[in-house]
Amino acid sequence: MSGGLVIVGGSYAAAQIAASARQGGWQDPITILSEEADAPYQRPPLSKRYLTEDLAETTLALRSPAFYRDNAIALELGVRVASIDRSRKLAIAETGAIWPYERLALATGARPRELPVEGARLGGVVMLRTLADARSLKGSLATTQSVVVIGGGFIGLEAAASCASLGKRVTVVEAQPRLMGRALLPGMAQWFADLHRRNGVRLALGATVKAIQGDQGKVKSVLLGSGEVLEADVVLVGIGVQPNEELARDAGLECADGIVVDRFARTSDPAIVAAGDCTRHPSPWADAPVRLESVQNAQDQARIAAATLTGKGLPYDAVPWFWSDQYDAKLQMAGLCAAQDEEVVRGSQEEGKFSVYYLRAGRLVAVHSINRPADHMLARKLIAARVEPDVERLADPGFDLKTLLPA
Amino acid sequence: MPTVNYVRPDGSRLSFDVPSGTSVMRGAVDNNVTGIDAECGGCLSCATCHVYIDEAFAGRLAPPSADEEEMLAGVAAERRAGSRLSCQIQVSAALEGLVVRIPERQT
Q1: Which CATH superfamily is domain A328-404 in?
Q2: Which residues 15-74 in chain B show a CB within 8 A of chain A?
Q3: How far is the C-alpha of A212 from the C-alpha of A229, rounded, in Å?
């Protein structure tokens, strides 16, 4: 019997590969092997509405039970795949259970980096990736006064905003001199620093963590490199993620801080595709292969992987986009930018409604918008069209950017 | 429970009882209605849950917020008078029998 398509992973990319493969005409069995106990769910709300509102967990489901049933997709939860036998085409679980495959899709995602300091395993020190993590964080917040967030990236700052809006005393500790250093350029990062300070969050920038201190196994404080001690009932560590590539690497697939795939989401084994946070892939929007951690990348690359599985062969060339909601600021990002890019601002930074347009060698490469959704939606099209706008016209608020689009 | 009718681009109709207070988008996801992608899960970031509201119901809906209005400017399919993002429409008794048409594409 054919083993059909076996998908390892249990989030956006896994569910989308299954959906798109079926839609694309894949007739054989489809099995999703997920190590999580929960069926695929939305992750972005976990640092936001899930913490601040009384949100029923059922509303987080990415797909309904009807989806798996109607599409004949077997969803196997709580299965940790320990190895892949490529010569015999088998996925082998930790328990010894074996799934033969005809084609294999790796959507193993990423996991939070652990903070390599003393006390990182104390009770009350949490990371935020899974629904189980969010349940635990939400539970501890109920009896918490002081929260220290280690890491000023998206997860840390979204959680900081949520905690601040719940009335907690919040400090964010960031090793770099500015927030969101990997995603945002200095002007935008400064705007967010001001936003957090206005909302009562203390920012310790350029600060290192020496140790997390506790009492009877429970966190009490965070000791900074400067010697300062920050009281903490809860410590949230959000210092980035690392791709779950070990399964692929141990099976001899090419990895380079991510499972290496081509534009068609193919790994170095023709029987195996990969998609989502776990991959490193070429992009027409970057000079070197990239690893993107986003819902958009997971879903769009999953569609490409499914197209490959069903013999369509579509290249992955979608413009990357991201979003982050903090307080009443809706940050939407299109494209990829770099430090040397030229900046043009449209809108009002004072009123918190503006977009920053980034140009490289005259071409629009990225747009970061705050509370300007129309700018963002248009930006995706402008970047895809590789427009080269005149800087002076771009800076003119009366100039309609839609006219830059090819007719 | 109010009934919501989802009309697919080929004209076929799917009808489901959707609890009041649930969004039209969530009603689609929960019942596996394809063609409403809802990539961002309903936080007004993606515009992939675009629908056309049947004229008969247009007057019973609260108008789109400023943010929804802006996102509608970027929908993938043609924007028409009845265009809305279904994550922003909460099902209620007043919308019993609501008819929404699903566009040809969301991305």
Answers
A1: FAD/NAD-linked reductase, C-terminal dimerisation domain (3.30.390.30)
A2: 26, 29-32, 34, 39-41, 43-45, 47, 67, 70-71, 73-74
A3: 9
